[in-house]
Queue: 2 jobs
Job 1
Amino acid sequence: MEKIKLNDTTQSLLNQVNQLYPGPVLVRFGEAKAGYLRHDQAKQEALPDGLIITVTDVTAPDYTASHELLHLLMLLQGFPQIFFNVSFGDPKLDEQLMVMSTDLYDIAMHLVVVTEQRKHGLIDEQIEQLYLKGIDETISVESDKDDDERTLRLLTLLDALVFYGEHGEQVVDHLTKRYPKAMQAARQLYQQLILKPIDSPFAMRRTIVKLFQQFDEQLSVWGLPELHNTEFTTLSSVLSERQLRLEVRQMFEIFHSDMDDRETHDKAYVGLNRNDRQNSFVLTPPQKDSANFFKDIYGKTVQELFDQLKMPYIVRK
């Protein structure tokens, strides 16, 4: 098999990542070649001192490698991250929720990632066709009856609208014929998603929270169980210097949740941001003297608490 080499644009993205990452970041290639594109055709693995990105499917190696590198670059440049610190006690349910939460988070991040890929000439008509093929491989055509693929269709089509932006009128016709109901819902979500530009980590966080909430609203309209990502998924905070100096009680409310701490399996308490009601950190109080524990937590500054929890945060410019 001929050796794959990154093109100059993707190589320069890899160089950028290597300047910011604390250890070496390498890209390697698998041998699968499906003949269509999906965003699950690469994976990241941490090494003791660095990171390996494996492009598992080499249908479009530069597209897929650059996509992963841009996601990584955004995190290294201080965009919000998600964490999964709580559990419902049912590994299968937890896994499903984590996958869908990550999909929603990635869709929001793709508003920046895909724009950058287009700017660098990494998406052309051929890539658009391969991506469309990937959609039709992922989801089946809608029938008159409701089925258990509705959530997956909505996620897939919303991501597609972000990917094509204003470049895909014919594609939108094709998708609307095959998936009319899901497409109608996806378009409504997409219109909300692009209302405000994403020009900072703070704007990205706001977009992610809004998407979590509006996706649940759509599931509820369809009579499907909501994902509750505003409670289940911890999203890193974007705070001003002034907010970091405020007391915890001024910024957050701490609630006893129905979930357990993923590490300790004790009852989890979730710190919700007072403004947007998003899970911003998770606590497990001691069995004894928990009243004093909470009094102490609420009296700390936000920065003291986040440092104590080793919870990453972003300082708003």
Note: The radius of gyration is 21 Å.
Job 2
Amino acid sequence: MAKKSWQRPGSPIGRKGARKANPKYRTRSGEAWERNEVKELKALAKQNTPTGVISLKLQRPEGAIRSKAQREGISLRPTNRSPYSRRKAS
């Protein structure tokens, strides 16, 4: 008896998002970072680029982007937002 499509290995059914279904997205996972990639990560973070977009540009998973940014001391928070505690109480 044939397996149902969602039970087959590699089936995109049941997964969310195109990146999880596409095996090419994980090709650079676990690979060492090069200097120019770290420079590009810093530049993209400075431009308030979302983590998902950075991961697509550098072809690495979002978790790898976040952990590398933390290790290098790069903030991925948008610089144009004020902290929540600074708003005046009405």
Note: The chain is about 40% helix and 0% strand.
